[in-house]
Structure formats: C-alpha cells, structure tokens
Amino acid sequence: MLEASIDQLEQVAERPWQDVSAAVKDGYGVQAKGQSAAEMVSRITDDVLPYHGGNIHPRFWGWVQGTGLASDLIAGMAGAVINANTGGRDHGANYMERAVIDWTGAKMGMPEGTSGVLVTGTSQATVIAFQAARVRVMPEVRKTGQGSALLTAYAGEGIHNATRKALELLGIGWDNLRLVPLIDGQMDLAALRAQIAQDRAAGALPFLLVGMAGSVDLGAYDDLNGLADVAADEDLWLHVDGAFGAWTRIAEAPWRGLSDGIGRADSLALDFHKWMYIGYDCGLVLIADEAAHRAAFAARPSYLEAAERGLAGGDPWFCDYGIDLSRGNRALKVWTALEMYGEAALGAAITDNCRLAALMAQEVESRANMRLAAPVVSNVCVFTARADLSQEAQSILNSEIVQTLQERGEVVFSTTRAQGVVMLRAAITNHRSRDQDIRAAVAAVAALAALG
Ligand SMILES: *Cc1c(COP(=O)(O)O)cnc(C)c1O
Predict the structure, then answer these.
(1) Average pLDDT per 10 consecutive residues for the chain, totaling 452 residues
(2) Whether residue 364 is found in the same domain as residue 313
(3) What is the CATH number of the domain that holds 207?
(4) pTM of the entire structure?
(5) Which residue, 327, 324, 319, 328, is CA-closest to 300?
(6) Could you say which residues form the signal peptide (predicted)?
(7) 398/301 same-domain check
(8) Of 292, 314, 305, whose CA–CA distance to 131 is shortest?
C-alpha cells in the first residue's frame, strides 16, 4: 500500500480524475465476507486510488480545495497506529495540538494565551466562535436558551455560507444577519455603523461582526483594522473568516498585507486543509480570550473528571473547547508538515499561488475577447471567455468550457456568477501548479471559446 501510495504521488500529473464507472460503484457494495490484507491492498490500488476527486492534480483550481502533502502519508501511518483520542487526558497528541495552536496564534498575531481547538473545518470553527460570542453577551444562554433576545450579526455581502449556516444552527437565524454593502470588495464601514445604530434604535442587540479574509468568490479581504476599530467602538465580537485567506500571513509582500489586522480578531476560523495544503480534514478556531472560549463549552460530568496524576490528568482538555468529546489526532499531520517543510517553503508556495493567479490574469488580458470579473488581489482569478457575447451566451459558453475541460481530464475550473454572468473561476491553492499549467489552461479555454 505504501509503494502504491508513493507511486500515486509521484505520477499525480499523469493520473487525472476520472469517471467512476458503474462497475466500480457496484464494487463498493459492502460484502463484509472477510479478505486478506494483500487482497485488500490490490483492491484499494485498483478501485480507490484512481478515483480521486482531482484536487491532487497540478491543474486543479476548482472551488477552494487543498492538494495534500507527502508528509500526510508519514503522519497518517503514525497516527493510525497510535489511534489517539484527543478529547482529553494526559498523552502526547494533546501537547502537540496545543503547540500547533500556539504556533498558529502567534503567526496570526493573536495575543499570547489565545485558545483554540482543531476541528473538521471552518464551518465547524464558525459555529464554535459564534457560540462563544453569544455566551459573552448572554452568559445564561447555555441554560435558558436565547428566548426572545434579538441578536444581530453583521457581515459583508459575499460572506461565505458557513456564516449563515452557523447562525441558523445556533437558532439566531439568517434574518438577523445584516449584509453590509461592499466598496471595492470591502465592507462599507459607514454603512456598517449606520446599520448598527438603526438596529440598536429598534431594540436589537448587535453582538457579532464577521470580517472576510479571502472571499470565496473573488479572494477579497475586508479592511480588518477598520473592522477591529468598529468592533471596539460598538462593543461587538469580531470574528474573521480566514478559511484560506488567513494564510497570506506567511506569504511575501504585497500579499501578506492583505491580512493585516487579522490578529485583532476576537475569534478567527481558518483551515489547514486548503491553503496550507494539509490533508483533509483540518480546520482551527482561535479565540483570543481563553476564558470566553471555555465559558461557552466546558461542562464535564463526573465520569470525565480530571485526576491529578495518570492518564486522566492533563489540563486543559479539548472537550471543554468545542463540540466533540471523542476527537482524532489532527495535530500530527499539521506538525509533521510544519516541521518537515518549514514555514519558509510553505509561505513561498502561498506566495507563488498568488503570483500564478496574477499570471493567469495577464494571460486572460492578453486575449482580445476574454475579460476579468475584477482585478486579481490574491489567489482567485475570475473571468469570462468571450466578453463580446450577450450575458446569457457567455454564461452558457463559460459553463460548457468548464465542464468540457473537466470531462477531458485537462483542467478543473469552477464557476461563479459575477456581473450577471456565469464565469470561470480559479482559486489557486495548489503547490503543484507551475507557470506552464496556467498558460496551457488559458490556451485550452481560448481554443474552446473560439469554437463557441
Ligand atoms: C471553504 C470555506 C469555508 C468553509 O470551510 P470548510 O473547511 O469547508 O468547512 C468558509 N469560508 C470560506 C471563505 C471558505 O473558503
């Protein structure tokens, strides 16, 4: 299995995604008859490895997906054999997780003592952060529920759906999320202040401001220092969705500057599995005020009481900082990647992804009929293949091009709607992509657009 896995990584460019045939799908039907390990290895090599989702390939830029690292293979083997449950108690994986949280908090510029917990991804991190924000304004809410309190939250238009979902799950509801208009991709701070004043006048309790570090459609960043000032003046909890974009913190100028001010957030949600390339799944919520984090989640019945010594010792326990009691060992793959590749190499890959997005923009602008939806600010490039056609014709053609290139196993773009047109979108969080991948992809789009 190890040899087949290494082959897969070495030949990743020659092994694109492919259709899962009916025979293969049928073969996944559970028979549970028992098989030898050798038979299992050959079945997995034949029926699992070829049918990946494409995101390990150098020409995959759809949605925002991470590309995985060879270090995951090393960490995965060790993680499988120790099978750590990181909900609590006194063992190595918990110390490692705290070290990973400390490193990340420091990189983000958050205060010393910042608390955190590794989670499935930014979606879960957002739920945890918003609950901490709510408990801060309603200390009894865990016991009494929210009742008739009208809590309101604020975010820019174009906020990721994870924010809506978290508000929905917490029973706050999207109707109480105010979407503030954007100016040049950033929340309009004057409109934000006006909306807060209007809500207060109407008897609402504004409690949460959500900033964007890397928007999902265009890779845009809010003015995070501006948001932190508003949050301080208005006594709001500032949360930043930095799912992928927080990691410009370890990139070079000018991209690093995009996330300036991120360390002033009360809470920050980010993923290791997107722009840090680490294998799925792994996200992190950071909360500046450890007591506020703990106040929102700690609750241990007597059978989980900590002891002074032995395996039931150790403090703190991660089950007091999030939703899960039993938890896997996500820290090991992060720690292995950080230690093996080093911050400089990871930061250089992030910088290079931004440079490649700028190169894609140049390639687009060099063609007469292609047009960018907006200037490229980070690692996301959105464009139409034929700006000379009607909006509807562009939408049909762009969607068709995206699907054709996917089906041919050549390039993965996704789509997004900008200026009323369905456009091609590349979010480059891929350390395997090179200049020639970008040039070939835009050339392939141009060839299909000429036919269209
Ligand atoms: C991906 C993403 C999310 C959701 O994160 P998951 O890790 O998929 O749960 C939230 N916000 C942004 C900006 C994202 O790109």
Answers:
(1) 97 94 96 97 97 97 97 98 96 97 98 98 98 97 95 97 98 97 96 98 98 96 98 98 98 98 98 98 98 92 77 88 97 98 98 98 96 97 97 98 97 96 98 98 97 67
(2) no
(3) 3.40.640.10
(4) 0.96
(5) 319
(6) none
(7) no
(8) 292
The verdict on 145 and 227 lying in the same domain is yes
Judge if 294 and 439 occupy the same domain: no
Q: In ligand 1, which atom is closest to the CA atom of 245?
A: 13
Considering only CA atoms, which residue is closest to atom 7 of ligand 1? 121
Ligand 1 centre to CA of 282 (Å) is 11
* Amino acid found at 329: N
User: Is 1 within the bounds of a domain?
Assistant: no
Same domain assignment for residues 291 and 428: no
- Residues 271 and 127 occupy one common structural domain: yes
Q: Give the Å distance between the CA of 215 and the centre of ligand 1.
A: 9
Q: Which atom of ligand 1 is nearest to the CA of 242?
A: 13
As for ligand 1, residues whose beta carbon falls within 6 Å of it are: 64, 121-123, 160, 162, 214, 216, 241, 243-244, 271, 283
Task: Count structural domains, the chain.
Answer: 2
* 170 and 282 housed in the same domain: yes
Count of helices and strands (H, E) across the chain: 14, 13
Provide the residue type at 279 as one letter.
G
DSSP code per residue over 220-252: -B--HHHHHHHHHHHT-EEEEE-TTGGGGGGS-
At 118, the amino acid letter reads L
Domain with 263 in it = 84-341
Side chain identity at 217, as an amino acid letter?
D
For ligand 1, the distance from its centroid to the CA atom of residue 301, given in whole angstroms, is 33
Looking at 301, 321, 341, which one is the last position of a domain?
341
CA 426 to ligand 1 center in whole angstroms:
16
Q: How far is Cα 303 from Cα 399, in angstroms, rounded to an integer?
A: 56
